[in-house]
Amino acid sequence: MGKVRYLGSKARLVQEIINRVGFSSEGRFIDLFCGTGSISLAAGLNNWKVSANDTLLAAATLTSAKLISLSEAKFIKLGGYQSVVNDLNNVDLEEGFFYREYSSSAENKEMIERPYFSIQNSKKIDAIRSKIRSLAQENLINEHERTVLLADLIESANEVANIAGTYGCFLKKLSKNALSPLLLKPRDLLLKKIDWAISQEDALNVNMEIEDTVYIDPPYTKRQYAAYYHIPETIANDDEPDVSGITGLRPWHSKASDFCYKTRASVALDNLIKIIPSKRVFISYSSEGHINEQDLMKIANSYGKTSITYFENFGRYISNKASSNHAKKNPLTEFLIEINR
Ligand SMILES: C[S@@+](CC[C@H](N)C(=O)[O-])C[C@H]1O[C@@H](n2cnc3c(N)ncnc32)[C@H](O)[C@@H]1O
Hints:
With 341 residues, this protein is an alpha/beta fold.
């Protein structure tokens, strides 16, 4: 999952899931809800031609950065990746959008303090954003290189964010993490070149063919990713949206997902499977999700022959000791359904 703690990430289940998907056959592997891209990467390493998709640009950026190979991001004009990262880590601080909106910088009473970052780190994020922007404008980095750097910034900002896991809200007092200085770290770019493509569509609008293998990993709780990851989304978009209210969310309602509403989730899933022409479809879901297992199987069974695999004792997202004890008694079960038409 890289360094971003992403709700519903399959990072810990990658091997189990990809073992069931297997090695590349005909067609592409389509990761319709790619999130951080853990499954897309595993499929690519299993020789699949990968098409990844997510409505969030932050997710598309994190996924692309996992699929981009060294040969696509050599940073030739700037003396290599490590040298660019060193330069970015040494930029002069700037007082920009992150400083104003997402730090405890409020200089007067009308400003709202939103300490998602320490003042120093907010200025560093502003400075690194400006620098990546000017490198791209001057054509010193290509589009893949820009994507890698933005993903690096999303991940390193996440390490020093003053939050409890997601960007749903900030902590009142700066945490120990938040006080350490933000530092970009170069990732290990892939030596193997993967044949990949990325899109940022509603899953319903993705082009799929009969011979493709489709993987569906939708949200399963009420937590809307566009709200819970609004800051990664702003870094990926490199914009300065109008933010408001205590938590300073960017406008996100246009990206609200039907899968996050208990009353809409099963219809949304049914409507999606209905339009998929592909012979093999996989669905990841959780026993704690909006759609219960029986209803899910009923939907799946109406489209073909199905099989289900359970992943018991999947370590769940816990925030305190009490819920940890609860988790031990009631292990969250994740499962994978395969439909063969
Ligand atoms: C459970 S997460 C996927 C996790 C991913 N497999 C991973 O390992 O990181 C669900 C993802 O679906 C995306 N999403 C929600 N509704 C969507 C829709 N209608 N179409 C495409 N993506 C959607 C969210 O932005 C989120 O990234």
